[in-house]
Design the sequence.
């Protein structure tokens, strides 16, 4: 069975101008924020990574939304400034559209550690997962995921190394971190799972 390894589709509103990010093997890359509204009205501001060639080829249109398809990517920030794990969306295709907000992610990978089941202060069950998702050249992306309720309870029974498919949305979450006596507001990025399924490891290995 073919399963998407790493696929994301976003449709939202551009929330800032592109800024230079880095130079890769294919040339210069830029990043910009994309605002995607949930059904609840909460807005997730997500970082989009795009090549110079894609920016130059993008046709400007008098349409309210930008559709982005690509992959969720992660890298470890060793600078000491900002988050340690940086999550972005590497754009493969982007175009202006009249479609409405959309935020859909499907990942298939292996669990880096056993999921942790806990309860929020409001009593909701939540499970934290860290998924290792393979990509080319022997590299992997490490994507934090959360699940709620029945999905969280099921995930709590999975072992480290289990092969898992997660479908949900990429979200930004603001939180307060105490650094000494100073409270600092930070933003975490994670996949909020609508569904999560353990798959046959032999099927996954033979893909």
Sequence:
């Amino acid at each position: 069975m073919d399963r998407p390894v790493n696929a994301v589709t976003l449709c939202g509103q551009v929330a800032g101008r592109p800024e230079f990010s880095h130079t890769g093997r294919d040339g210069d890359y830029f990043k910009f924020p994309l605002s995607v509204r949930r059904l609840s009205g909460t807005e997730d501001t997500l970082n989009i990574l795009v090549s110079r060639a894609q920016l130059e080829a993008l046709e400007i249109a008098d349409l309210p939304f930008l559709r982005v398809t690509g992959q969720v990517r992660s890298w470890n920030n060793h600078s000491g400034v900002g988050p340690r794990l940086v999550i972005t969306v590497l754009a493969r295709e982007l175009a202006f559209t009249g479609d409405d907000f959309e935020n859909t992610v499907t990942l298939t990978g292996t669990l880096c550690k056993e999921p942790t089941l806990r309860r929020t202060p409001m009593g909701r069950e939540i499970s934290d997962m860290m998924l290792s998702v393979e990509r080319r050249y022997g590299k992997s992306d490490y994507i934090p995921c959360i699940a709620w309720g029945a999905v969280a309870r099921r995930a709590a029974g999975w072992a480290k190394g289990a092969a898992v498919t997660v479908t949900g949305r990429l979200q930004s979450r603001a939180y307060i971190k105490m650094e000494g006596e100073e409270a600092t507001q930070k933003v975490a990025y994670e996949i909020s799972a609508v569904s999560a399924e353990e798959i046959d490891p032999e099927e996954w290995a033979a893909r």
